[in-house]
From TrEMBL:
CDD domains: HAD_VSP. This is Acid phosphatase. Residues 1-23 form the signal peptide. Belongs to the APS1/VSP family.
Length: 256
């Protein structure tokens, strides 16, 4: 596809489902415009690059000097534009896939910060500046109010139209199934093939192992995993990986 065609895809992403009602499909947080010094802006831009390329390795909180930078990024146009680019690249690839036509052409999605945005939660918890509190986050999940990432919602619908079977593979626990389904449906996601959550035997596995095992199960069932989308490298790496993996930006937290 020519560069001009690729940008045409990006341009229409927000318009693909105009006219359909997705109550939670817009991230309803006002853009921030905190003053960030030139020195901090350069430092934090490089830090975010290191995070997205997985050079930073494990980290537990964002640098204190980058709090305003990250807040500006995730609530502003840059985050949405970066997400649009990832979705555009994903669609470009998906349209070139030679489908098997056996009903087992698959695409795997992570959920948090991939399909659903937890920005309303992180807005109240420093946009990654605070140490993660699982109990507080679970209380947020129970509300089933996480909005969709607009670019991911458009990608999800486009993949369905192309004939991909959609599998959802999340680090959430099995006891959160009902609220997760409720939230997904409320935010515009539907007709997935299967939703994987951590069962009792998965609870202490690193994400990269747990998700690799689930992908391996799909392959053993005869599915071809053409594509995979996630905000963490642990969503995408390991074994039984997709033919192409697409990393959605997330400078707020890291999961091994």
């Amino acid at each position: 596809m020519a560069a001009s065609d690729r940008f045409s895809v990006l341009a229409i992403l927000p318009l693909l489902f105009l006219g359909q009602v997705f109550p939670q499909s817009i991230i309803q947080i006002s853009p921030r415009n905190h003053r960030v010094s030139d020195e901090d802006s350069i430092y934090c831009d490089s830090w975010r690059f290191s995070v997205e390329t997985n050079d930073a390795g494990f980290w537990s909180t964002i640098p204190k000097r980058c709090k305003n930078y990250v807040e500006n990024y995730v609530t502003g146009d840059r985050y949405r534009s970066d997400s649009d680019f990832v979705a555009g690249d994903s669609i470009t690839f998906a349209r070139t896939v030679r489908m098997n036509g056996d009903g087992k052409d698959a695409w795997v999605f992570d959920i948090d910060e991939t399909l659903l945005s937890n920005l309303p939660y992180y807005e109240a918890h420093g946009f990654g500046l605070e140490i993660f509190n699982e109990s507080l986050f679970d209380e947020w999940v129970d509300l089933a109010e996480a909005p969709a990432l607009p670019a991911s919602l458009s990608l999800y619908k486009e993949l369905q139209q192309l004939g991909f079977k959609i599998f959802l593979l999340t680090g959430r626990s099995e006891y959160q199934r009902n609220v997760t389904v409720e939230n997904l449906l409320y935010s515009g996601f539907d007709n997935w093939e299967r939703l994987f959550l951590r069962g009792p035997s998965d609870e202490h596995k690193p994400a990269i192992v747990y998700k690799s095992e689930k992908r391996s199960d799909l392959i053993n069932e005869g599915y071809t995993i053409h594509g995979s989308s996630g905000d963490q490298w642990s969503d995408l790496m390991g074994f039984a990986v997709a033919h192409r993996s697409f990393k959605i930006p997330n400078p707020m937290y890291y999961i091994a």
